[in-house]
């Protein structure tokens, strides 16, 4: 019996110690940003009934949140825009690049009325295994600088989670 009691006591000590081992937890942060872009469209088809275009957009991000997350990041996006009658939808990908070269890739989708939604799908460096989502809405649009271009800013609010 003495041996069994020692074994049980040892198991209690081991299990108690396991409870205090730190577990990798994700660090979630909220953010709010302004993304300003210059976009060039390649019109595939355009009639009143149907419009199809690809868009290549490049720009910069400014944080409007106190934590300054994503401040001075660059961005490059590629979209497919589809318009049927008066209803426009789009989807694509965006690569956001930090000043140190690490980046996050987001998958975007949206429409002309409710704005966009993006979900993080890939990250490098500090952003490896990233999770996140944001909602964006255009807040300003400039006069096109050249034919088939679009200059605009979008406000986006979301969250991001990176494993520690």
Describe this entry's structure for a reader:
The chain has 164 residues and is mainly beta. Helix content is 11%, strand content 62%. It is built from one helix and eight strands. The protein has one helix at 2-19, and strands at 26-46, 50-63, 74-84, 87-97, 103-111, 115-123, 131-141, 149-163. The chain has an eight-stranded antiparallel barrel with strand order 1-2-3-4-5-6-7-8. Strand 6 (115-123) and strand 7 form a beta hairpin. It starts with a helix and ends with a strand. The mean pLDDT is 90.
- CATH homologous superfamily descriptor: SO1590-like
Task: Round the mean pLDDT to the nearest integer and report it.
Answer: 90
Largest sheet: 8 strands, antiparallel, barrel
- CATH architectural category: Beta Barrel
The number of helical runs is 1
Could you tell me the CATH topology label. AOC barrel-like
Q: What's the arrangement of strands in the largest beta sheet?
A: 1-2-3-4-5-6-7-8
List the helices and strands in order.
HEEEEEEEE
């Amino acid at each position: 019996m003495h041996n069994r009691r020692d074994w049980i006591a040892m198991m209690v000590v081991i299990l108690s110690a396991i409870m205090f081992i730190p577990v990798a937890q994700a660090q979630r942060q909220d953010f709010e940003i302004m993304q300003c872009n210059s976009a060039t469209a390649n019109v595939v088809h355009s009639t009143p009934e149907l419009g199809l275009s690809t868009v290549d957009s490049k720009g910069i991000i400014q944080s409007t949140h106190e934590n300054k997350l994503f401040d001075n990041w660059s961005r490059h996006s590629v979209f497919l825009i589809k318009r049927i009658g008066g209803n426009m939808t789009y989807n694509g990908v965006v690569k956001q690049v930090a000043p140190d070269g690490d980046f996050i890739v987001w998958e975007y989708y949206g429409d002309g009325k409710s704005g966009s939604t993006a979900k993080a799908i890939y990250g490098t460096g500090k952003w490896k295994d990233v999770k996140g989502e944001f909602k964006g809405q255009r807040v300003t649009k400039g006069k096109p600088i050249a034919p088939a271009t679009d200059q605009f800013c979008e406000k986006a609010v979301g969250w991001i989670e990176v494993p520690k």
